């Protein structure tokens, strides 16, 4: 089953937590070691919040829950996160 | 580029675009400007405090304190019917953005660009076409725009008027074709893609946007026909 959405939709929720643009950040999957920009992650809309999965191995990378009192993220499957400067963001 | 926190815009104009969709112009004091392809998250708050947040692409780009959205109404939707049917000039709308620095086109990019949009998925691509036209960029642009029927196209007249030797526009109709159209209606398929879009090249960037099923199908066709996945950018709007 294809994912409902992709990492582009996380830009808003994650802007509440991070100062950098999350969609161009390079994410290293803890499970398969693949490194890809976060925009291409598969994102499911779950009643609880958003679940981002690795587009290579489908393991959970991150969950994001926005509530009235704040944003909770769980970085479950991310081995490293590399923030790109704007000059190389393309 | 990243600006967090909620802002308020005031609706200055709305325009019917399709039987189910319209564009919405907003005045946003202090708007930092945006790159073509970015989006905002719109937040509606009900009288009882219940909130719903949805993403909407910006049809506008560049500096200035006015922005434009274009929204298609989903029959049972929570947010889109309000934006399409109820919002009036003078009303305020809460949102955050500009958001996303990956699914974007900047005027200084020199490679050729293939845009492929389905339904309201054309909105960020329209921002790119406008930005390309405004900048007089020498990059060659092509847009393949898939709609159910001719009347379902957003910004149809403007897109047609912008077509010239650096911007080529091709329509694909999935249910109803205009009178005299040479082919029957049908989904975007490999034959059409190979006939009307740019061939794979290291000097090409492709942007695909629309309902998730459309984006999956079209991006698979591109990769199957030899496009480098790293040069095919996708944005999924959701749905089937
Ligand atoms: C980055 C991004 C940018 C977007 N930009 C735009 C835009 O410029 N214009 C625009 O009109 N929309 C855009 N969308 C889609 C938008 O965010 C909403 O999903 C859409 O308006 C439906 O919201 P709703 O509250 O009305 O419906 P909901 O209450 O969320 O959904 C109603 C039902 O429709 C289904 N559904 C959701 N999306 C679709 C779809 N696309 N096609 C068919 N069924 C669907 C849902 O699964 C649900 O069952 C964008 C989405 C993303 C992620
Ligand atoms: Zn993985």
Q: What are the main properties of this structure?
A:
heterodimer, A: 90 residues, mainly beta, five-stranded antiparallel β-sheet, three-stranded antiparallel β-sheet, 6% helix, B: 240 residues, alpha/beta, Elongation Factor Tu (Ef-tu), domain 3, Rossmann fold, 2 domains, six-stranded antiparallel β-sheet, five-stranded parallel β-sheet, 5 helices, 11 strands, 20% helix, binds flavin-adenine dinucleotide, binds zinc ion
- Structural class category of chain B: alpha/beta
Count of helical stretches of chain A? 1
Q: How many strands, what sense, and barrel or not for the largest sheet of chain B?
A: 6 strands, antiparallel
* Percentage of residues in strands of chain A: 35-45%
On the 0 to 100 scale, the average pLDDT of chain B is 95
What is the terminal separation of chain A in angstroms? 29 Å
Rg of chain B (CA only): 18 Å
- Rounded mean pLDDT of chain A is 90
SSE arrangement of chain A, N to C:
EHEEEEEEE
Question: What does the secondary structure layout of this molecule look like, with pairings?
Answer:
The complex is a heterodimer of chains A (90) and B (240).
Chain A: E1 5-6, H1 11-15, E2 26-29, E3 35-37, E4 42-46, E5 49-53, E6 60-67, E7 70-74, E8 78-82
Chain B: E1 7-18, E2 21-27, E3 39-45, E4 51-57, E5 66-72, H1 80-86, E6 92-99, E7 112-118, H2 123-135, E8 141-147, H3 156-162, E9 167-173, H4 190-196, E10 204-210, H5 212-224, E11 232-236
Parallel strand pairs in B: 7-8, 7-10, 8-9, 10-11
Antiparallel strand pairs in B: 1-2, 1-6, 2-5, 3-4, 3-6
The structure holds flavin-adenine dinucleotide and zinc ion.
Write structural notes for this entry:
By secondary structure, chain A is mostly beta strands. Helix content of chain A is 6%, strand content 41%. Chain A has one helix spanning 11-15; strands at residues 5-6, 26-29, 35-37, 42-46, 49-53, 60-67, 70-74, 78-82. In chain A, the strands form 2 sheets. Chain A has a 5-stranded antiparallel β-sheet, with no helix packed on it. A 3-stranded antiparallel β-sheet of chain A has the order 3-2-8, with no helix packed on it. The mean pLDDT of chain A is 90. Chain B is α/β, with parallel strands linked by helices and 240 residues long. Chain B has 2 domains: 6-99, Translation factors (Elongation Factor Tu (Ef-tu), domain 3), CATH 2.40.30; 112-237, Nucleotide-binding domain of ferredoxin-NADP reductase (FNR) module (Rossmann fold, 3-Layer(aba) Sandwich). Helix content of chain B is 20%, strand content 34%. Chain B has helices at residues 80-86, 123-135, 156-162, 190-196, 212-224, and strands at 7-18, 21-27, 39-45, 51-57, 66-72, 92-99, 112-118, 141-147, 167-173, 204-210, 232-236. In chain B, strands 4-3-6-1-2-5 form a 6-stranded antiparallel β-sheet. Chain B has a 5-stranded parallel β-sheet with strand order 9-8-7-10-11, with helices on both faces. In chain B, β3 and β4 (51-57) form a beta hairpin. The A-B interface holds A 2-9, 11-13, 15-16, 18-21, 23-24, 37-40, 45, 66, 68, 86, 89-90 and B 1-4, 39-41, 49, 51, 53, 55, 96-97, 99-104, 106, 109, 212-213, 216, 233-238. Flavin-adenine dinucleotide sits between chains B (39, 54-57, 70-72, 74, 76-80, 120, 123, 211, 235, 237-240) and A (5, 8-9).
């Amino acid at each position: 089953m294809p994912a409902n959405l992709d990492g582009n939709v996380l830009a808003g929720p994650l802007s509440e937590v991070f100062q950098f643009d999350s969609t161009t950040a390079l994410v290293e999957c803890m499970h398969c070691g693949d490194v890809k920009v976060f925009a291409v992650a598969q994102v499911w809309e779950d009643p609880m919040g958003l679940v981002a999965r690795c587009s290579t191995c489908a393991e959970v990378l991150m969950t994001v829950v926005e509530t009235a009192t704040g944003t909770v993220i769980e970085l479950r499957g991310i081995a490293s996160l590399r923030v790109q400067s704007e000059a190389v963001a393309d | 580029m990243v600006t967090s926190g909620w802002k308020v815009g005031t609706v200055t104009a709305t325009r019917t675009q399709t039987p189910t969709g319209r564009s919405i112009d907003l005045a946003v004091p202090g708007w930092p400007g945006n790159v073509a392809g970015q989006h905002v998250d719109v937040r509606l708050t009900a009288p009882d405090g219940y909130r719903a947040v949805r993403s909407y692409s910006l049809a506008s780009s560049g500096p200035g304190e006015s922005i434009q959205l274009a929204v298609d109404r989903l029959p049972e939707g929570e947010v889109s019917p309000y934006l399409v049917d109820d919002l009036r000039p003078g009303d305020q709308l809460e949102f955050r953005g500009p958001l996303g620095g990956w699914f974007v086109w900047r005027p200084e990019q020199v490679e050729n660009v293939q845009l492929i949009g389905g339904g309201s998925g054309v909105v960020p691509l329209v921002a790119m076409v406008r930005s390309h036209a405004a900048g007089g960029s020498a990059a060659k642009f092509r847009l393949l725009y898939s709609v159910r029927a001719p009347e379902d196209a957003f910004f149809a007249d403007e897109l047609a008027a912008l077509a010239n030797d650096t911007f080529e526009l091709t329509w694909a109709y999935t249910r109803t074709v205009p009178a005299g159209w040479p082919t029957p209606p049908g989904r975007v398929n490999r034959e059409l893609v190979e006939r009307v879009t740019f061939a794979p090249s290291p000097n090409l960037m492709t942007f695909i946007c629309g309902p998730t099923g459309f984006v999956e199908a079209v991006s698979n066709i591109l990769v199957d026909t030899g496009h480098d996945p790293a040069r095919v950018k996708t944005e999924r709007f959701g749905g089937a």
